[in-house]
Design a protein that fits this description.
It holds the Pfam family BRCT_2. This is BRCT domain-containing protein. The chain is about 35% helix and about 10% strand. The chain has helices at about 5-15, 40-50, 85-90; strands at about 30-35, 65, 80. Strands 1-2-3 form a three-stranded parallel beta sheet. β1 (about 30-35), α2 and β2 form a beta-alpha-beta unit. It is globular, with a radius of gyration of 13 Å.
Length: about 100
C-alpha cells in the first residue's frame, strides 16, 4: 500500500466517525521522534502518528521512540525503529511487536 493511501485512509476514517474520533493506536506510546531523513517524508509520518493518537516531539532527547535512521547522539533507553513499524501498525490496526523493526 502506498504511503499517501495510508494517510488518506486515516483521514477518511477520522472524518467518517460520529462523535469523538476513536483511533488511538499510538495514544499510550512514548513520545515519538521521527528522523528528518525518514522515508516516507517526516511530515507524512508525523500526521499519521498524530491521527492515530500519538504525540510527536521535535527533539530526540525527549523521545522514547525514534523512527528512522539518525546519526546523532542517541539517548539511552530509547527504541530505534524502522518507519515500517508505523505503517504496519496502521495497516494492521494494532501495535506490532518491535522485533524485526529495530534499527542498530
Amino acid at each position: 500500500m502506498q504511503q499517501g493511501n495510508l494517510y488518506r485512509i486515516c483521514r477518511l476514517e477520522k472524518q467518517s466517525t460520529t462523535g469523538a474520533y476513536q483511533q488511538d493506536l499510538f495514544a499510550n506510546q512514548a513520545l515519538i521522534f521521527i528522523s528528518p531523513k525518514s522515508e516516507p517524508p517526516i511530515l507524512m509520518l508525523e500526521k499519521l502518528v498524530e491521527l492515530c493518537g500519538g504525540k510527536v516531539c521535535k527533539t530526540l532527547r525527549k523521545a522514547g521512540i525514534c523512527i528512522g535512521h539518525y546519526k546523532g547522539k542517541r539517548p539511552a533507553g530509547s527504541q530505534y525503529l524502522s518507519e515500517n513499524w508505523i505503517l504496519d501498525c496502521i495497516t494492521q490496526h494494532a501495535l506490532c511487536p518491535i522485533d524485526g523493526y529495530v534499527l542498530e
